[in-house]
């Protein structure tokens, strides 16, 4: 019985550690690459502005260059509603942990530009008014200002 209880406690503890270590790993990777973190909260299958943000900005070549050139590490905390799009319990927990820390108001879409320590440098509530090129340019400028 003691072994069962100990196993149960360890499994619950490991979920908490994994969720926290996920963001810690992203921060570590951002530090190594000297990149910023772009964290986007979305409802990929129900939030129309979220869908537009992904289609018109995140899926564009201008945005993808930010990742390939190590300007940002992109992290999407998705909260789908349709049963067929549900995430693994582990990923749901990670996204909920990110929402507890960075999106307590539950805004969608909500995009944050963070430094490698997790400090918020800029936020966008809703669909950004800029096009992909202007959005990417703004992120590049913020990164350049971080070097100074």
TrEMBL record:
<keyword id="KW-0732">Signal</keyword>
<dbReference type="InterPro" id="IPR036249">
    <property type="entry name" value="Thioredoxin-like_sf"/>
</dbReference>
<dbReference type="Pfam" id="PF13098">
    <property type="entry name" value="Thioredoxin_2"/>
</dbReference>
<feature type="signal peptide">
    <location>
        <begin position="1"/>
        <end position="19"/>
    </location>
</feature>
<feature type="domain" description="Thioredoxin-like fold">
    <location>
        <begin position="31"/>
        <end position="131"/>
    </location>
</feature>
<dbReference type="InterPro" id="IPR012336">
    <property type="entry name" value="Thioredoxin-like_fold"/>
</dbReference>
<protein>
    <submittedName>
        <fullName>Thioredoxin family protein</fullName>
    </submittedName>
</protein>
